[in-house]
Protein 1
Amino acid sequence: MKQTKDPFPTIYDVAQASGLSIATISRALNNPEKVSPATRERVMRVIDEIGFVPKADARARALQNTGRIGVVSPFFTAPSFVQRLRGIADGLSSTHYEMVVYPVDSGEHIKHYIQTLPLTRSLDGLIIVSMAVSDDDARRLRDYQIETVLIEFPHPKLNTIEIDDFEGGLMAGQYLIDKGHRQVGFLGVAGLPEFAIHPESRRLAGFRKSLARAGLTLPEAYICNAPYRLELDESVQKLLELAERPTAIFAATDLQAMGLLKIAREKGLCVPEDLAIIGFDDIDFADYVGLTTIRQHMYQSGKLAVELLLSRLKQPDLDVQHLKIQLELVERNTA
Amino acid sequence: MKQTKDPFPTIYDVAQASGLSIATISRALNNPEKVSPATRERVMRVIDEIGFVPKADARARALQNTGRIGVVSPFFTAPSFVQRLRGIADGLSSTHYEMVVYPVDSGEHIKHYIQTLPLTRSLDGLIIVSMAVSDDDARRLRDYQIETVLIEFPHPKLNTIEIDDFEGGLMAGQYLIDKGHRQVGFLGVAGLPEFAIHPESRRLAGFRKSLARAGLTLPEAYICNAPYRLELDESVQKLLELAERPTAIFAATDLQAMGLLKIAREKGLCVPEDLAIIGFDDIDFADYVGLTTIRQHMYQSGKLAVELLLSRLKQPDLDVQHLKIQLELVERNTA
DNA sequence: TGATATCATGAAAGTGCTTTCATGAAAGTT
DNA sequence: AACTTTCATGAAAGCACTTTCATGATATCA
């Protein structure tokens, strides 16, 4: 009667109630084959009776692992990042791992995370999304043997899921050129905090390359940078008000492409006739608005990241891997 | 020299290196005033030297708190839910709490979580979003003294952030009536899994009430249910092809309202002239597409939930609270 | 100067589990 | 019948901290 009242029965209670030792209870739970069937039966019945559930932290302590993997990400609620998060969550859902999300909104934050997370030992693995990791950080992560997978920012010493931003920019440019455009512009990202990475510069580089190959140039006046959100600023207005404005624009992100699309339409421009627009990312809403874009399969990148992480957790001596996500041009109605 | 090589110095290493006992080290860290200034100085110097960081889980175990709060949510990557998540994350960011996300995608899942999370005791608090909680579940959560805040689904015995769906439906209906509409329809949610809650029925009830007050009725033919996503199914097509179709439709969620908007436009209908549309939620993209809607301030609900949770964590004997989020009609271009 | 209060410190218990190692019984072998 | 394996089980150590309680050393008071 005492046991049934106890709100938190421990393994000791189970042992006592069943007349066995805690070692046997533990075995029945974790290595059932090491226990006789009869005993196993008995243990299970008692467990059900008194409602025993192993305490996670005690288990973690003894096991030297925590059953938790951390995800550190900036803008984790931005559409594209959410898709990634979904991939991670799905990848983790079939395992017994929990997902701890560390939103980072300042440079202090990330430094702090990288410095203390490995030390407090409260995580089995770490997925770092779209954040620059210094050699120092990388060394620290390795020294403290916390398995880490980087998404988007590559580091030679760490597992990485890479996006070939250069290639993506090249694809976008080539596509526009093939469509006959000769005056093309670029919409980049402005005002990104210093701790975030800047993939748009590589997208721009690839874009430039494609133009060069076709003997075209990208005039300074055709390059515009705007904040990473739906509401763009006046610099975009100006670009569209140019006497000789571009006939096509490659936006470094879908979010901005959508902002651009809206402004263009407000100005009475027909898309794609007057102005072709191609984005990058393929966020969920891209399909809704019919945005032509370069898909980088965010969901898949997240899922891949956890698969990579899990495989390393199982076999820690595996070589560091650098996977590349396949880019894909999705043709819709804006270009 | 041994200490400096050890990648994970423990409190014992600090004790040995400083010639003090682990008890004193612990005190110097947690109750500095209980230790002589000289000793404190000495301890700190050694800690810095060998790079000691207390292991979080060991600390949690001894302290009986974990520094972690759990968020269980369905569809946690759907636009509206993400906004809520952002509110929760922001609310938590100024604290030392970590956010563990438990995505639920099956009924088994939620039952399982509610039954085991409190028992494994690896969480200080729990925020349950948009999930039905039975009396049994509620009792269990209380018995096992895990502080819980429910969002959207109210329970008398637990803290709740409520949304007045009935009132929202009423507001939507009243607005359409005031605009002169007499033939109004309703777009509800179909195919929601059984573990999710169904706020749309209350939204519908409120909507009906407003119609009744104006002497109007809602014909069966004007009620349509479609999946909770951007791509709606043919039932919506049929509604719009009715000989005498409604002049206005209240969609139970913004996501569906946007789907409806797209279909209407594809059919050549002018919105709002031919068909007025009003949604519910005010997701981020609602502003982009100019959707008139009932805002339920998802972000705020999340933030409020953590504030409520934190205040209860500090003062556990506080009475259970039931907060109501203020709804707000946001007039844009679709109605 | 002897008795008492104050204070910094250390020893040890507690936290709830896993796992190694030892033990004794049953089964198999010759 | 004596001996070796095999197998289920229990005792106990280990995980890395916090905190209570006891102790001995000072400081305080009469």
Note: Residues 1-5 of chain B have pLDDT under 50 and may be disordered.
Protein 2
Amino acid sequence: MKKKITISDIARELNTTASTVSRALSDDSRISKAKKKLVWKKVSELQYQPNSIASALRKGKSNVIGVIVPTSDRQFFASFIRGIEEIVREEGYRLIICQSDEQYDKECTSIDSLLNIRVDGIIASVAKNTVDFSHFKKIESQGVPLVLFDRVIETMNVNLVYSDDYYGAYRAVSHLIEQGCRRIAHFAGKQHIHIYQNRLKGYLQAIRDHHLPVDDELIIETDLIHDTYSILEIGKVLAKKLSEMPERPDAIFSSSDFAAMGALQFFKENNIAVPDEMALVGYSNDFSSSVIEPSLTTLDQHTSHMGNEAARHFLYQIITKPEYFKPRKTLLKPELVIRNSSLRRNVIPT
Amino acid sequence: MKKKITISDIARELNTTASTVSRALSDDSRISKAKKKLVWKKVSELQYQPNSIASALRKGKSNVIGVIVPTSDRQFFASFIRGIEEIVREEGYRLIICQSDEQYDKECTSIDSLLNIRVDGIIASVAKNTVDFSHFKKIESQGVPLVLFDRVIETMNVNLVYSDDYYGAYRAVSHLIEQGCRRIAHFAGKQHIHIYQNRLKGYLQAIRDHHLPVDDELIIETDLIHDTYSILEIGKVLAKKLSEMPERPDAIFSSSDFAAMGALQFFKENNIAVPDEMALVGYSNDFSSSVIEPSLTTLDQHTSHMGNEAARHFLYQIITKPEYFKPRKTLLKPELVIRNSSLRRNVIPT
DNA sequence: ACCGCTTGTGCAATCGTTTGCGCAATACGG
DNA sequence: CCGTATTGCGCAAACGATTGCACAAGCGGT
């Protein structure tokens, strides 16, 4: 192990003290230009690397933001993280990324470690089974800025960034109705998760607004959070179930791209024409939805934009005095990306 | 800001000193069981959160590993990161993830910040344009353990984890030949990157070993590192070029799944039958390659396994005395995942 | 009664930076 | 020539946990 050189080493060589060097490095106005030059010269000469640990300890600020995601290998979360990074990197913040793997206890330990290393803030999306929020309350109570995104906890008074799932679903279903669909099924996610609840609400409202009957049989609640290949399978199974109904539906709005794609594969294998006999809309605009045949209509949530917003919320909270601070909530509208799985050729666009 | 409670607060309440508390918490044998109980009780009573910054400063160890990836929104890197995490989390290490965005200068600053915060090690894949390696040398010279993966620098004497690209390519091309293909084109990546170089070598060797002619016209070198949608386009353009050749090739081995998929889309649009007129093999086994129609044959690199290995290399180096330490190199064999894009029906499997 | 040993605890320095405060030197106005 | 700014820098105390060393008390053996 080579001995690391410190601020005092520099000071010694320059016949001055650590304080002066420190101030010179932080461009303090009380240090003369000449001295600063000298210091900078020595710094590069000795290849000095500041020790941010020491600095963090003294300043009580680590310049690190903790990010907790259920999993980082979904495009959704990956591009969200990229979105955060884009914004905070120029302010000198680094990210430390924890995966909860959708498990409550990993979520807890992640939060603990992040607090231990004294992150300056935490940006998180809650795991699918989390119903107790005391660990998030702890973050607040320690005075650490918190931003929740996507799977948020609406009852907590913190910064929020989420997508307007109600709108997205409403938009998707209205689109299907415009295409002439009259019996629209819905692959709904587990209803204790807000986003899935809102998508179901949007679905219902759209149906009602267009004076169509709501059929509970067509609403299938299932766990849409798994690895991609499993959800694909789930989609196939559900598609089979729907196709065997006496009065077969003519469209599906799925809360997951992958379930929609699984369904699509089933229909192709069983010669049910998509979109003409069965139109499909997914959710999230995963890359794969653009290459599957027919390509899948879906909702793009502009995830990296969500990341940007989350980052900005954090930065805003940092510069605001606690007594003046009020949490901010951003609700972003998803965009319907219309592709072939829902585009019937004999329909005249309105 | 609520005042954080420290080890000395605990000590004061217990009429003892910080040293005793510290030792009690680290389960030092010199502290009596009784005292330890008392300490633990107070700890939970006061909701004490250890300050790892202070600890890191004193111990010269942060329990953080820096990971540098070109981009985290590729499945490849995401699952690699997951692979690392799996192994190191139980040893108490956290990950801090930096994206170089394939840019040399971001790579440099990432390394600098990681060294500043005194990470215990760095696991990195080099950016596509990096040709000067002094920043990686710096990591070594500071005595910080380094593991390079996938896009490695073979001339550096550090831990390496990479995939046997030569083997993968050889395997892919042999498979195409077994399927009856005789004029096989190759979408090659830029040749200053080792992995693409090795894939080209594997391609060439397989052709030669099967006594087929090598046609330079069929080898197209192009930049395969971009966002997915752009590579898709590149694939289409190249496919067009190939399809217009007087002697049209009957197969493509692409160093990128996305380029292969782009080509596939072009062939479908232009009624060139895949795999019968044109067989296709991609590289990486991205999820989308399984849903495109026909599904794409490709090479799976077992990325999360690569992550496991990288993590183990790091842990090994950590526990080994520098004077006994020798870098370890792991070369993993990719697996050919045979799907419909290359599977000709009239071929009897051998 | 004395010595040595074990067991449990405290003292104080240390990790590398930052920062409030004080002090000298110079400048400037009257 | 004195008083008051202004400029430039050093002293020393933090930040919170860790750790080498000393030391005290208790015990047993001679």
Note: DSSP finds 13 helices and twelve strands in chain B.
